[in-house]
Amino acid sequence: MNGYLPEPSAKIAAGKTEAWVDLLRTLADPIRLRMLRLLELQGQGLSVGELADVLKLPQSTVSRHLKTLTDSDLAQARREGTSTFYRLSESAAVNSVGHLRRLSRQHVENDPAAKADSQRLAQVLRQRQAASEKFFGKAAAQWDQLRKEWFGETFHLEAMLALMNPAWVVADLGTGTGAMAALISPHVKQVIAVDSSPAMLKGAKARVRDQQLQNVDIRQGSLESLPMERASIDVALLALVLHHTVEPAAALREIHRVLRPGGVLLIVDLQPHQVELFREKMEHRWMGFAQETLEGWLKEAGFVQTRWHALPAQTARSKENHTQVPDLFAMRAEAA
Prior knowledge:
The chain is of the alpha/beta class. The chain folds into 2 domains: 134 residues, Arc Repressor Mutant, subunit A (Orthogonal Bundle), CATH 1.10.10; 184 residues, Rossmann fold, CATH 3.40.50. It is 47% helix and 19% strand. The strands form 2 sheets. The protein has a 7-stranded mixed β-sheet with strand order 6-5-4-7-8-10-9, sandwiched between helices. It has a 3-stranded antiparallel β-sheet with strand order 1-3-2. The longest helix is centred in the middle third of the chain and has 28 residues. It is elongated, with a radius of gyration of 32 Å. The N terminus is likely disordered.
């Protein structure tokens, strides 16, 4: 060392001599020096019980010393559920406080008690890891069900929407009552929700009003004649809509018109099926789409980089005659 002592912390500078003497008094205790060393070694924090196990001291003694360290702004507490973990404070690592603490640690490192502390700390951390592994080992078989019971079935999918670009303008085509538009709205610049049905749009407007979605613009129009300008959209969504369309190829050409170059179209729809119930009761004009057919239409409309993904097989059945629901696919394409 060259004898230079860094600037004191704000707290010590404000308290001047008295605060500096208090700091020296705090660091003058060998147990507290060992505790600070342990907190530095385990940056994520240690509980009172873990510190007591490492130091071989009663928890009451450890708690008393921790209070002194936190009162001196050398340690800070963090609550995790019913447990409290202690770690070095930010001020303990900077300026004259950090300088003095590091000098103290250099001497503590050579103490036989500190070396024994290191060995017991490693054992405590192994026990912590073993406890975690035991929990996940027991829970692994039911883990998916546990998460579903606590957080629902779609939380992770809804969270993934945050990956969307906040500068995007997204067109939710065939929006229906606006369920998709409401999910997307918090994550993008604007959602333009389009549907041809006045009844559906009434439901969408009510949803937008109730949820106070300021960036959702609801418009009436058809897929074959979209109410938006050329090259004004970054992403277009067709979720269970294309099978209602009279001329899917014409709709895809119109979507290409409103997408910006490099814009993305995402189609979610049914794979080919023979369930007449969908034609008879739900006005489906198309009994699903084959991958090759859709790829041909997209290429003709000017799309490139098409990618087809079959979604997991459906297990649901209709309430009317227990007919199994057809499987779905997702298809992504870019506007050339």
